[in-house]
Every structure is written in C-alpha cells, then in structure tokens.
Amino acid sequence: MPDALYSLDKSVFYFFNTTIANPFLDAVMPALTDWNKSWIGLSLAAAFLLSLAFFGGKKGRILGVMVLLLIVFSDQFSSAVLKSLFARPRPCHLPLEHLRLLVDCGSGYSFPSTHAVNNSAFAFFLSYHYRRWAWAYGLYAFLMCISRVIVGVHYPSDIIGGAAIGVAMAASLIALYNALSRKYPSLRIAVS
Fold first, then answer.
1. In terms of Cα–Cα distance, which of 32, 73, 65 is closest to 49?
2. Among 31, 62, 67, 76, which residue's Cα sits nearest to residue 46?
3. pLDDT tens by residue, 79-102
4. Residues 70, 74, 77, 78, Cα dihedral to 10°
5. Coil, helix or strand for 99?
6. Percent of the chain predicted with pLDDT > 70
7. Shortest CA distance to 74 belongs to which of 157, 147, 142, 167?
8. CA distance 165 to 74
9. Contacts of 54 by beta carbon, 8 Å cutoff, 6+ apart
C-alpha cells in the first residue's frame, strides 16, 4: 500500500479507535464484534435461521440454506485464501502508539476483514430478497464492520475491502440462483 494511502488509513483508524472513544462504545462494540462467540449471539443466529425455515415458507427455507452456504464459503475464502494472499499484519500486531485494543487481537492477518466479508455478504443477500428490511440488514453490517476498527483489530481499508468482497460474493450467488431458477422454474421465489 502506498505511503499516502497507508497514512490516511492509519488516520481514519485512529479516529475510530481513539478520538471518538467513550465508555458506551467501549462496552457495546466488543460485545457486538464478538457476538458469534457468545451463547446469546449463537442463539439469535439459530433463531433467525429457524424463523426463516418455519415462518418463511419455501422462500425462507431456500434462503436459509443459501445464507448458510454463502457464509461458510465467504468465511473460508476470506480467512484461508485471501488473508494468506495479502498477508497484511493487523494494527494490533504492530507497534502503533495509542492503539486501544478492546478484544483479543487474533493470530490471523488483517486484509480483508472476514467479519466484514461475512456480514456484508449476509446483509446484501438478504436485502436483495427482503427489500423492506434492507435498512436493518445494512445497519447491522455497518455496525459489525465499524466495530472491528473501534476495537482495534482492523484498518478501515480492511473493512471496506471486506465489505466489497462480501457484496460481490452475495451478488454472484444471487446471479447464479437467478440463472438456475430460470432453467428450473420450481426454484423461483418472489423478491419482497
């Protein structure tokens, strides 16, 4: 990354990690960023998928399976392929002054943020199919992405790149599904 871009990335990182720091964000963002490690977060995710399956009809069941496949694929592609390819150190692995680390740094690389990839893929995919809830999915993905910078484990470019990759992966799955549903009309579901 050229020096000018890295300098900008670091400045924006410090803005979110240090300048706007306050007790509310210090309490909320670590819990939000690691929701998938708590029984409450896992229970909410399971409840969401089960509600799609039981109350969403055929559409909900198809989308529930597709969301699971999308998240598994995006997670593995980001963490096992892209992170190794770019091998960018996390800000918390560097001797940055005034870094505020609010969660465990993790041993992996920084680019792309797998949290950003997964949550953006999830949000974009469901926003396409449930358009009236797009604002909620978008807000959720934004908060998950920005939490990674606030807690000190990713640069802003990591989450921007991760979000773009997640959206691209979701868009690819949508295009593939639309092509298959044209060939096999019994797969068609309505966009609402």
1. 65
2. 67
3. 999 999 999 999 999 888 889 999
4. 180
5. coil
6. 98
7. 167
8. 9
9. 60
